[in-house]
């Protein structure tokens, strides 16, 4: 293979760290490959961004290749955070060592590319006039490589020196004796401002949005860190690959508001001293999700800035107030804030005094004209998508990628897009990329792509392309993750907000490197789930969705798996009850209601049953819902579903009376069912005493409690009392059959397991009795005449299909049914009020159903 061939297996665009490693892997795999690179040498970002002070802000020991074990021994970084020249030397060293340059065409810009569905090949057009055709086309163009076009009036007028941090002159710039302006205060500006100030006669910084920055404390790498790396580099790298952001770190276990103020400040202080970017949002586990927690961190920064900057007005201007810490990329600096104490350095706060125009001699703001010898634009990039759509890429049926992405990028795994077969992106939008140590994310993508190409070759296949369903759901999954955080609240380049007219969507995947890698691996393990593979050996469309669980539900399951929570069925009944009580004690309490009253009522055998009444804050009387808690007839109490009952009460405006019932194994079937009817009858009889509206009674329940509610509705119909106007059944047990697909698909892994349901049924009911409609209400002969029902079922619940079956059976019997099937939810997730937010809509719909049962007599308590 030769660099002069114009028909190759693989074209890679970009010779930065992604393109270099991809080339290496392609060569190893025996694919003929050409890399096309605009610059005249390797290095990508580090080739272009040569501004003073440019250096990495992930520790160099982490920000380096892991794929060449020898290299790890041969190369030693001189500092914690290597400067740009050293990083470029590293790229050069790797290129030499692996003789990469022989397959790289420098000084070659790719201008367009199109897919030919007949030949199944891409044609890549370059500015040198040389076209290259290839089977596979890989964009290794970097996330922050397309400088933002200046959007300030008069930019072309200035006759002095103009510099962009993103394309800095190779010979450097001497600012000695000059009046210099820097526009922007992002990472590039924060790194360069102190060094420009050291040379310039006068420096004026034009700031639109202040940023959060901590001292880098650059210097030699600590012995401790080096020891951790050197003692077992492979283990260290493996830990990085399976970490949240691509650097081995201990995860915070506590939220910022869970510790005393003194403790909180001490931890923030330690973070400030440590000087690691990922440490900023890692002090506590909720500063990126909880605004109140983040506020404590923001205040800490403000105090630091005020303590460093002498002029109080300048300090205030430097304090970020319009975004939360971590929602825009924070910075690492060396003497950044201190620089504003120098007499020749001035800060112009553009929020107070906006730029009106750049002039021939300087910059005019609304309040003042400034004269300069040089202007430095540190105004950032068209991030993540700019360099990709900067090439005019046309896929199948003449559709361009730019058109496809008009409303924001749509990719599967950030790697590929439907309609663009065999086009790969390294660290594309929809992958963790800029939220991670780029080196780790680059290597993971390169490896995934290389493995995919080898898979195709081995199986005599020519093309790979994601399905529309897979990519649509992947985008939705990423957005859902982002919506759980504060990230979308900032006008950041993560959101595309820095480029006028760019659609504002959250661009990277915020679920973490570890989760992301697991998803990519699982896609492969499941036969390239979500992809269509095509070639001489045939076409296989393996359509499907990876990570269909709601994002917060997935996080909760991951946390529980990490904690090693014991399976309930492995415990004694006594221990299981104690475990449930302990778990209940640490959950969010749910919303306030008007009043809570505890009491007792007589059960079916005359013994006392405890109840808890939740009264809305609105003036009464209110209709009443008799609610039965979950717990498999074995666990739980009248207050076991407290947050859910509060939520239903507050949202529906009805009184919720959560009634206990006799539990198995002490009292087996039909004790609980009989208690349900007895309780409903007592509540109906005492409605007025309870502050309720006589004749306005509904039943509700969750899980086994929903089983009791359903049975109560049936029994009440049979015995003629009480009158029940509606039933809300959340994940109900309706049948004793364990063979439905949901029992098979969700047998394990989603908290309520087949084993646990077996344990519950065994404690509750003899096999011979289980088909009795009082145990399996689905088996009742006649379901007609039952009260209207709202039935909620969850995708990842073993009980899903029997709930669905009950909804269908009631409907067939003429009962009005509102059936809500919750995508991505589990048996326990909808009850997690204030802990899991993706299921909140279902609780709202349940409350609305309750209101619907009672008509005009109820209004929301919210
Ligand atoms: O760019 P930025 P950057 N008028 O977009 C301002 C990585 N990086 O090159 O925030 C006035 O962050 C803009 O203001 P605002 C890192 O991921 C890494 O500094 O839009 N001001 C902002 O202050 C980083 O996040 C390293 O209101 C205008 C600044 O210009 C990313 O690259 C080093 C303006 C742009 O900041 C980008 O950083 C450097 C206008 N019209 C960069 N337009 C490492 O250490 C824009 N601004 C590895």
Characterise this structure.
With 862 residues, the protein is of the alpha/beta class. It is built from 26 helices and 29 strands. Strand 14 and strand 15 form a beta hairpin. Helix 15 runs parallel beside helix 17 (513-525), helix 20 (642-652) crosses helix 26 (840-854) and helix 21 (671-685) packs across helix 22. The chain is globular. The protein starts with 6 loop residues before the first strand and ends in an 8-residue tail after the last helix. The model has no long low-confidence stretch (mean pLDDT 96). Bound molecules: 3-acetylpyridine adenine dinucleotide. 3-acetylpyridine adenine dinucleotide binds next to helix 5.
Short description:
With 862 residues, this protein is an alpha/beta fold. Strands 1, 2, 3, 4, 5, 6, 17 and 18 form an 8-stranded mixed sheet that branches. It has an 8-stranded mixed sheet with strand order 22-23-25-24-26-27-28-29, sandwiched between helices.
Question: How are the secondary structure elements laid out?
Answer:
Elements: E1 7-13, H1 17-29, E2 33-36, H2 45-48, H3 69-74, H4 84-97, E3 104-105, E4 110-116, E5 121-126, E6 132-139, E7 161-164, E8 179-183, H5 187-199, E9 202-207, E10 213-215, H6 223-231, H7 233-241, H8 261-274, H9 277-280, H10 291-308, H11 312-318, E11 331-333, H12 336-339, E12 345-349, E13 355-358, E14 362-365, E15 369-371, E16 374-377, H13 386-389, E17 392-394, H14 401-404, E18 423-425, H15 438-458, E19 463-466, H16 468-483, H17 513-525, E20 531-535, E21 538-542, H18 551-563, H19 573-585, E22 595-602, E23 608-615, E24 622-628, H20 642-652, E25 655-659, H21 671-685, E26 692-702, H22 704-719, E27 726-730, H23 741-745, H24 754-764, E28 789-796, H25 800-812, E29 817-826, H26 840-854
Parallel strand pairs: 1-2, 1-6, 2-3, 4-17, 6-18, 7-16, 8-9, 8-16, 9-12, 10-11, 24-25, 24-26, 26-27, 27-28, 28-29
Antiparallel strand pairs: 4-5, 5-6, 13-14, 14-15, 19-20, 20-21, 22-23, 23-25
Helix pairs in contact: 1-15, 6-7, 10-11, 15-17, 20-26, 21-22
The site of 3-acetylpyridine adenine dinucleotide has 27 residues, from helix 5.
């Amino acid at each position: 293979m030769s660099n002069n061939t114009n028909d190759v297996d693989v074209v890679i665009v970009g010779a930065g760290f992604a393109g270099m490693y991809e080339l290496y892997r392609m060569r190893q795999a025996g694919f003929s490959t050409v890399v096309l690179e605009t610059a005249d040498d390797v290095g990508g970002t580090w080739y272009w961004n040569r501004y003073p002070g440019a250096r990495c802000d992930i520790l160099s020991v982490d920000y380096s290749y892991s794929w060449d074990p020898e290299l790890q021994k041969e190369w030693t970084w001189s500092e914690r955070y290597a400067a740009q020249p050293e990083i470029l030397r590293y790229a050069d060293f790797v290129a030499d060592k692996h003789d990469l340059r022989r397959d790289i065409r420098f000084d070659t810009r790719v201008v367009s590319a199109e897919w030919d569905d007949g030949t199944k090949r891409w044609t890549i057009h370059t500015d040198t006039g040389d076209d290259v055709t290839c089977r596979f086309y890989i964009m290794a163009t970097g996330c922050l490589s397309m400088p933002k076009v200046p959007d300030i009036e008069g930019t072309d007028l200035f006759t002095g020196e103009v510099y962009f941090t993103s394309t800095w002159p190779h010979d450097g710039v001497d600012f000695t004796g000059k009046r210099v302006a820097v526009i922007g205060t992002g990472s590039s500006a924060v790194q360069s401002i102190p060094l420009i100030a050291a040379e310039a006669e006068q420096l004026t910084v034009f700031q639109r949005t202040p940023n959060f920055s901590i001292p880098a404390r650059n210097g030699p790498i600590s012995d401790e860190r080096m020891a951790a790396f050197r003692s077992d580099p492979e283990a260290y790298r493996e830990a990085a690959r399976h970490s949240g952001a691509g650097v081995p770190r201990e995860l915070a276990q506590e939220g910022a508001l869970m510790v005393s103020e003194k403790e909180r400040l001490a931890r923030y202080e330690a973070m400030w001293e440590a000087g690691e970017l990922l440490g900023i949002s890692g002090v506590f586990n909720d500063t990126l999700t909880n605004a109140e927690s983040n506020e404590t961190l923001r205040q800490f920064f403000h105090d630091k800035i005020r303590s460093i900057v002498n002029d109080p007005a300048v300090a205030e201007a430097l304090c970020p107030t319009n975004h939360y810490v971590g929602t825009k990329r924070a910075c690492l600096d060396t003497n950044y804030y201190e620089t504003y104490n120098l007499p020749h350095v001035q800060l112009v706060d553009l929020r107070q005094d906006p730029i009106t125009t750049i002039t021939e001699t300087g910059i005019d703001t609304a309040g003042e004209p400034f004269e300069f010898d040089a202007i430095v634009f540190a105004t950032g990039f068209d991030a993540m998508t700019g360099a990709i759509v900067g090439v005019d890429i046309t896929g199948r049926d003449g559709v361009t990628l730019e058109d496809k992405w008009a409303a924001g990028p749509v990719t599967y795994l950030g790697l590929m897009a439907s309609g663009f077969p065999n086009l790969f992106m390294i660290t594309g939008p929809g992958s963790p990329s800029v939220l991670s140590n780029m080196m780790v994310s680059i290597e993971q993508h390169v490896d995934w792509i290389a493995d995919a190409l080898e898979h195709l070759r081995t199986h005599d296949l020519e093309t790979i392309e994601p399905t529309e369903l897979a990519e649509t759901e992947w985008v939705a999954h990423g957005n859902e993750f982002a919506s759980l955080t504060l990230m979308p609240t900032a006008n950041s380049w993560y959101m595309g907000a820095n480029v006028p007219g760019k659609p504002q969507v959250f661009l990277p995947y915020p679920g973490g490197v570890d989760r992301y890698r697991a998803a990519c691996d699982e896609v492969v393990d499941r036969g390239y789930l979500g992809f269509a593979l095509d070639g001489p050996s045939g076409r296989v469309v393996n359509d499907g969705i990876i990570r269909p669980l709601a994002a917060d539900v997935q996080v909760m399951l991951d946390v529980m798996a990490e904690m090693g929570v014991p399976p309930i069925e492995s415990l004694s009944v006594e221990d299981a009850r104690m475990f449930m009580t302990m778990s209940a004690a640490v959950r969010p309490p749910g919303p306030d209601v008007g009043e809570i009253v505890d009491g007792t009522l007589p059960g079916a055998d005359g013994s006392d049953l405890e109840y808890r009444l939740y009264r809305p804050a609105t003036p009464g009387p209110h209709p009443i819902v008799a609610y039965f808690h979950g717990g498999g007839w074995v666990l739980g109490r009248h207050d076991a579903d407290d947050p859910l009952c509060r939520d239903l009460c507050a949202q529906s405006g009805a009184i919720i009376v959560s009634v206990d019932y006799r539990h198995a194994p002490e009292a087996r079937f039909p004790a609980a069912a009989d208690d349900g009817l007895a309780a409903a009858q007592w509540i109906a009889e005492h409605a007025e005493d309870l502050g309720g509206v006589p004749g306005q009674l509904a039943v509700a329940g969750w899980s086994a409690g929903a089983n009791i509610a359903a049975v109560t509705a049936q029994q009440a119909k049979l015995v003629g009392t009480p009158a029940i106007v509606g039933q809300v059944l959340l994940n109900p047990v309706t049948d004793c059959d364990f063979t439905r697909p949901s029992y098979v698909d969700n047998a394990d892994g989603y908290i309520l397991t087949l084993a646990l349901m077996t344990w519950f049924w065994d404690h509750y009911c003899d096999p011979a009795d289980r088909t009795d409609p009082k145990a399996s209400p689905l088996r009742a002969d006649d379901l007609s005449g039952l009260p209207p029902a709202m039935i909620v079922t969850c995708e990842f619940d073993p009980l899903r299909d029997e709930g669905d079956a009950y909804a269908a059976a009631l409907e067939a019997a003429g009962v009005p049914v509102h059936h809500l099937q919750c995508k991505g939810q589990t048996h326990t997730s909808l009850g997690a009020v204030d802990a899991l937010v993706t299921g909140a809509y279902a609780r709202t719909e349940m409350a609305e159903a309750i209101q619907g049962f009672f008509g005009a007599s109820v209004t929301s308590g919210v």
